Every structure is written in C-alpha cells, then in structure tokens.
Q: What sequence folds into this?
C-alpha cells in the first residue's frame, strides 16, 4: 500500500527552479522571493 498521494522533484539553479509533481506536472519559477511566494 502506497501512503503517498503525490511525489515532487525539485531542481534549483541560479535563475529558476523547476518543480515536477506526479499528479500536477511541471512548472518553473524564478529563483527569488516572488518565485517562492508563487510556488507556495
């Protein structure tokens, strides 16, 4: 039995960070305060 509903992978670089969820897919954000706020 798998207790996890979704798994996320995060790749952080100097200018952007990419997030990929098993259910929600891929998205990219700026690597600054506004990007982190948008991600949350």
A:
């Amino acid at each position: 039995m798998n207790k996890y509903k979704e798994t996320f992978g995060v790749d952080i670089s100097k200018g952007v960070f990419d997030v990929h969820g098993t259910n929600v897919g891929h998205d990219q954000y700026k690597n600054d305060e506004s990007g982190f706020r948008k991600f949350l």
